[in-house]
Amino acid sequence: MARPDLTARVVDGKALANTLQAEVAARVARLAARDITPGLVVVLAGDDPASAVYVRNKARAAEACGLRSRVVRLPAEASVDALLDAVHTANADPQVHGVLVQLPLPSHPSPEHVRRVTRAIAPEKDVDGFLPVSQGLLALGEPGFVPCTPAGCMRILAHAQVPLRGRRAVVVGRSAIVGKPMAHLLLAADATVTIAHSHTEDLPGVVREADVVVAAVGRPGLVHGGWLKPGAAVLDVGINRLPDGRLVGDVDFESAARVAGVITPVPGGVGPMTIACLLDNTVRAAERELS
Ligand code: NDP
Prior knowledge:
alpha/beta
């Protein structure tokens, strides 16, 4: 429900995701007429409750859109070889168009192990867009799989008709899966982009210059309304579980929504769009069979 005390338009990410999923379902129906069913495989090791929720949500959304989705479950202590086997099997299966490995891998905290497993995914099935080749194409501004969360953020900005050309954008966070690809997408849209991180000096001053702020940090309520330029568009990527069980973002919603022009809530903002963009990428992978 609209709140008259807020200046910001609050983006309904769930509704937007439903619209995108309806488009995805229509494309799946067109593929069905050519005897193609887009297939998604998620490799899941262990029983981390948060990962289980994410994987269940992905599988449900995929099935609701008519995709074939399969979760390959391995024990938490699965070896790198066992994980690689699961990825190679999915790579070789012609009915599978998208493969992803749900992170974290409980028994493999070493980044080297995680890299070995995730980089085994076939480039043409990299629907998460995490492979170096996908990230490289994005950095070069060439077509390829775009990581789902930044892709969802761009769709939200387009839906909210936030102008980007020539505007100042600040991305807080520089991870390979959110911050950096987000910055590339904003740059490709002709924004003037700053990437901030844990060593940035005067973060409030940097954020205050931005017409568009993307917070992808993992610190509850870090970005405060007092940091924002009035009218700024604020996309909150963060998902943080508080000790009392509440889920909050990286933006202090109550103060920020009194200064921003557009804002995404947590939950119900960027999160649902991430899943819808994963389905979009998987169907795109299947559509390549038509060309
Ligand atoms: P990472 O931990 O990989 O990266 C966090 C980034 O934030 C790092 O670049 C870090 O800087 C920076 N950072 C940390 N503390 C500060 C600070 N005090 N000031 C400025 N920058 C800081 O996280 P992810 O990118 O994977 O995820 C970020 C958040 O987004 C998490 O809450 C995650 O749960 C959520 N998320 C949500 C998704 C969705 O669908 N909505 C999908 C993916 C993630 P440095 O590099 O210097 O360490």
